[in-house]
Amino acid sequence: MKILLIGAAGTVGSAIETELGQRHDLVRAGRSNVDVQVDIADPASIRDLYRHVGKLDAVICAAGSVVFKPLAEMAPADFELGLRDKLMGQVNLVLLGQEVLNEGGSFTLTTGILSQSPIASGASASLVNGAVDAFVRSAAIELPRGLRINSVSPTVLVEALSTYGSYFRGFKAVPGAEVALAYSRSVEGRQTGQNYQVGY
Ligand SMILES: NC(=O)c1ccc[n+]([C@@H]2O[C@H](COP(=O)([O-])OP(=O)(O)OC[C@H]3O[C@@H](n4cnc5c(N)ncnc54)[C@H](OP(=O)(O)O)[C@@H]3O)[C@@H](O)[C@H]2O)c1
């Protein structure tokens, strides 16, 4: 398969590349250290990306930012970053990518455990993860030509503990290699409308 992997240089993206890169042709996209640059927060940039890469069998997004801050300190603009980037960035990848996916192709988006299990400073992440998971269930019943869509919702990764560990006290971390298997199930399996929870 020819697979577009957005966020390929990141923690989750690298684990996906290790798993799927063994047997598929990956186009590595993101903001830096990639084959093709894209900013998913900008619909024009997404259009350019799809024009550049041509026909695909799968699109995986492992990119998307939100602000982590105590709720009392969150300003409207802090929420807007997550809405523009991790939420609408991923929604727009689907809206603008339907035409470039071959029949039966798939979208796999990334959410996270905070939609189900809140932590302090995680309100924006919880909001956006829940919205993306709901979008996936809804889009699955409307996508044309047998196109599929799923999300992967991991707990914190072992490889990210040095950055996020203090936010996730008491959570069991999961190795990136295990998270990558959920992307494999989404891309190489047949299911649609699933939110694959990993490490809950
Ligand atoms: N790490 C975890 O433990 C964990 C757990 C659950 C869910 N998640 C979710 O998984 C996703 C990836 O997390 P991660 O930890 O792998 O992050 P990361 O290590 O920071 O990697 C994210 C990658 O995506 C790129 N990127 C960020 N914003 C982008 C944009 N607007 N357009 C294009 N590329 C963009 C980054 O490029 P630059 O480096 O150039 O900015 C980076 O290469 C996020 O949605 C995160 O919430 C992560």
Can you walk me through this structure?
The protein has a seven-stranded parallel sheet, with helices on both faces. Strand 1, helix 1 (11-20) and strand 2 form a beta-alpha-beta unit. The longest helix is centred in the middle third of the chain and has 22 residues, at 76-97. The chain has a single domain (2-198), classed as 3-Layer(aba) Sandwich (Rossmann fold). It starts with a strand and ends with a strand. The model has no long low-confidence stretch (mean pLDDT 98). It has six helices and seven strands, in the order βαββαβαβαβααβ. Helices cover 38% and strands 20% of the residues. Helix 1 packs across helix 6 (176-188). With 200 residues, the protein is an alpha/beta fold. The structure holds NADP nicotinamide-adenine-dinucleotide phosphate. The site of NADP nicotinamide-adenine-dinucleotide phosphate has 28 residues, from helix 1 and helix 3.
The quaternary state of the protein chains shown equals single chain
User: So what's the CATH class?
Assistant: Alpha Beta
- Structural class computed from helices and strand pairing: alpha/beta
Largest sheet: 7 strands, parallel
Question: What's the overall geometry?
Answer: globular
**How many domains would you count in the coordinates?**
1
Share of residues in strands: 15-25%
Based on the structure given, which CATH architecture is correct? Answer: 3-Layer(aba) Sandwich
Helix content estimate: 25-40%
